[in-house]
Amino acid sequence: MDRSKELLRLCSYTQNSSSLHRVEQIKKNYSEFDKVVEALLDLEPYLQHSDFYISLKDDFDLIEIRNDLCNEDELLMLDVEIVVWANQHNIEFLENLDNVSILGFKHR
User: C-alpha distances in angstroms, 108 versus 68, 77, 90?
Assistant: First the structure.
């Protein structure tokens, strides 16, 4: 399956020209977009049984992990599963107040 379409499925977005265009914008920020989506696919079983979900961040054209159950005034607390996943896949991320932005891969 096309990685763009897989990302839309992971985000539970309807596949149409608008959403595919959105993914094309996001792809520009990831030099290894296909590998990022591949890594997110490994996280999918965990996400299906948690309060976290994958979304597309409009402001900066990034992929993010969100949890809407957090209050606006408290920091999003990452489950250890997500941190372990990020370390296993060498994913670089940025923790924000209400989401975690996936920045790509750590380069050593």
Answer: 33, 27, 10
Evaluate whether 52 touches 99 at the Cβ level (below 8 Å).
Answer: no
Helix (H, G, I), strand (E, B) or coil at 91: strand
What are the backbone angles phi and psi of residue 36, rounded to the nearest 5°? Answer: -65, -45
Alpha carbon distances (Å) from 49 to 42, 73, 81: 13, 25, 12
Q: Give the separation between CA 18 and CA 39, rounded to whole angstroms.
A: 24
Both structure tokens of 76: 């999003």
Helix (H) or strand (E) holding 102: strand 99-105
Q: State pTM to two decimals.
A: 0.85
pLDDT digits (tens, 9 = 90+) for 71-99: 555 555 667 888 889 999 999 998 877 78
Closest CA to 85 of 50, 57, 59: 50
